[in-house]
Amino acid sequence: MESxxxxxxxxxxxxxxxxxxxxxPDVDDIEKVRLRDEVLDAVKSDDMASLYESLVAxxxxxxxTELLDSMRxxxxxxxxxxxxxxxxxxxxxxxxxxxxxxxxxSLHYIQIGDKEKALEQLxxxxxxxxxxxxxxxxxxxxxxxxxxxxxxxxxxxxxxKAKNLFEEGGDWERKNRLKVYEGLYCMSTRNFKRAANLFxxxxxxxxxxxxxxxxxxxxxxxxxxxxxLDRVSVKKKVVDAPEILAVIGKVPHLxxxxxSLYNCQYNSFFSAFFVYSQFLESYKSVKMxxxxxxxxxxxxxxxxxxxxxxxxxxxxxxxxxxxxxxxxNRPDAKNALYxxxxxxxxxxxxxxxxxxRVIDL
Length: 361
Known about the structure:
The protein is mainly alpha-helical and 361 residues long.
């Protein structure tokens, strides 16, 4: 497994995000076709045979026995080479080389997505590791495995282990990295206040690009802060923070979302947050009076708000003013796929016509 490039997300965590999107009902079918191709490419690239089998079992990918056999064959060949390097290091080289050989095997198990063997090999590598910093790096690899598989028990235990290691020593760079890992864990387990404080402490020292890009980190920081901090703290630590101001414009709708809420511009806040769409998703029809009650506003306010969103094409519903009812008319996924196919078909036909004119010449 190659060392992680600075500024680049760890490949398996990027893959985890694509797997999540594939399972999300709001992602268009045409987009899921692209995601499946990218997932398959990632699986093939790293010989992730076990993950491939589980995705086939879950009907995400189709079974290709030839592909599976070829991945298994390459895994066996690579493991043989790694074991030979370990044996050679133990027989002819020093403790440092032995540790590196075991680490290489650990990283290969991580690369092919074999969680249990990776954890077992990381434990063996730890037993041959003396330096606190190197032990800490092994914990970070374990945490990445935990986040990929959403194993929160493993993540929690690994964070505690890292904190115990820091009592023995450790550098500030790794300590700051751990704050972001712990913040992501806290956010995943709905401890938003702890997550916000950890993220805010890490804004000026952020180096954990293996988890997510800096823009995403700022996005998480703003959301966790809005949910958990008081108004004065939001102003001081978020609204006026130069690090956030430098990036917030790159994240769609985030600036409007933050500032409209802080400035009590709830009309703009609802546009950015768009909770109306979430509310209507559960209904084929709903009384305007019930919706107004749910949002704590008047029926006239809901009428004016939704009329504007419907006219702009942001809400798929219609208002029956006489009956006082909202009726949803969301386009289904098959219709969206049909429209996308027609659009791409027209594009292909135009290309073929241009090509035929060139050939005629």
